[in-house]
Fold these 2 entries.
Entry 1:
Amino acid sequence: MENKKFNFKENTAQALLDSRLRKNLKFAMGAMIQKRRAVFSNAQELEKLRVLGNSIRRRALSKLPELLEKLENKCTENGIIVHWAETTNQACEIVLEIMQKHKADKLVKGKSMVSEEMHLNKFLEQHGIEAIETDLGEFIIQLAGETPSHIIVPAIHKNKDEISKLFHEKIPGTPYTEEVEELNAIARKTLRKMFYEGHVGLSGVNMAAAETGTLCLVENEGNGRMCTTVPPVHIAVMGLEKVVEKLEDIPPLIRLLTGSATGQLITTYVNMITSPRKAGEKDGPKEIHLVILDNGRSKILADPQLRQTLQCIRCGTCLNHCPVYTRIGGHAYGFVYPGPIGKILTPQMEGLEKAGAMTTASSLCNACEEVCPVKIPIPELIRRLRNESYDLNGTVQGHGYKKHFMETAAWKAWELVNRIPALNAASTKMAGLFGHMLPKAGPLKEWTHTRTKPVFAQKSLHETVKEQGVAHE
Ligand code: SF4
């Protein structure tokens, strides 16, 4: 996260005041949900595929160290140079070193959430290197000076009018137009020149097969292929969980990913990168680097329950179906990963003290779990993280930060009252007599603010039963 202090409550309140944002999101999410539904119209087939996807991801995570070692060996054998980074800063330094070695001052980038996690563009800018986003959505938000608001469609929060205005103002010599084809042509023309100017290309990795050392990259615009083919050097960055065991594990995951993300059977481009340009080949980079980033993932892997977070294939469909995300958009979350996946991933990476408030933004309606193509039990993990916020013996960084003396005392008192029959009877009597005075101010304000105050019975169950002469033990 950038240095700005994270205040989720404030961000949410601000976002809810933005009616244009909600309108844009409602329109876009509705379309994405329909497309996904159409491509997965056979529920039984989808379920079978999800079970398969889940087992592929769980198998990969169960032998992750071994697979990563194999991936490194295979990639090295194929001529790809492998780097390991424990922190995002180390990963940035590795990219910088490669750029400096090649005396490169322009980086053309395909879409990569890991590079967002690294805040790579800003880091490179501080070292005099220009990073140019070439994915259309990323290009739009780079022009606007914003961060992505969705993990698949980064500029989803913007409508056509806003983009028209942005192109007109930010791309020199561009006339104002609201024609989609013309807007596409403007972006295409602007970016095409940049591919040739970029000395180094950077991409993410959707999956990497340990068996063959193959990096798989799915995309629709062809910009990913340009970034990984035109510049003489290609750098691929990936989170260490992206590895799968075999090449044959990739097709079912692609089917789940593209169907869930964009409602497509398959994307326009599926790039399988196995080596740099070989002797006699006419195109392709002469040098390929793979940067494998940890950034807290090993710690997540060590916990058998929380490990399920790493099954994620970043399809973004949990965002599209989340009643919270679809009202507030991605920027309100304040970190790189928004929506349901962000709620479980970010607090584990950044710590509960810093990002734990996100876990409160869930109605636990289970929509995210129902649509997740690899069956991550997101609500269960949200509950776990919520509990850890209060638990002094928890394992997640920042656990117990919400534990408060008053709350502990209140629960102790509750326990006492319910253990001693006389106290229980007295408190029930008091609640019946004075419960209607339950305050709308003070510590109970938050609760009564959005809920109807409970009406306590005038008599306890014991009294009623006794009066009515019902036999009981
Ligand atoms: S948690 Fe599931 S639904 Fe959400 S982005 Fe990851 S794979 Fe997709």
Entry 2:
Amino acid sequence: MSIHTVPVAGRVVVDMEIPANAPWSFVIRKGQTLRIIDSHGQQAVDTLFYSADDYQERYSGQDTLRAQGSAYVSTGTRIMSNEARVMLRVTADTCGLHDTSAGACSCESNTVRFGHGTKYLHACRENFLIEAAKHGMSKRDIVPNLNFFMNVPIDPSGNFTVVDGVSKPGDYVEMVAEMDVLCLISNCPQINNPCNGFFPTPIQVMIFEAQED
Ligand SMILES: [Zn+2]
């Protein structure tokens, strides 16, 4: 676990709240820094990245984990594409533990995990589909995602579980874009799973202009 708590300084391009349960998307230009703030703590932030120039190039959890030789995302992680190019680099992280193995919740998986009575509940996969549609994408474009602030311990035999989130109110993660990227976020609506403390809350996103050294 690597924790770095010095935030980037620079002109703020975007500063907005994503309501509990809601989707969001935005293009982050090369050199800009994205900060995702878990305003209230214990909120899972399901995230996907696409090359803004070609959506066929998109986030690859497999390449990201292989590139760094670790199961979790934190400071120093190079967020890789399916073409093995660096999309973003994680430059600050006050939480220290972000998952990219457990995927996003869906109505179908909720039914399997929590019972048929949850079938009607809103899920991250729907958020992703709604937001992806704004950019001309569909089901086939939704790939395994990053889960910022989601706590997924992996045991030595490779089994994992989703347990209580460890992020505190105000915890944040920052990443600098190495290419122009479209970022899709589903602020997870999960109420059956301890990853959100059983109560989804708003998050804050900020984008900072590239810093001049
Ligand atoms: Zn979810």
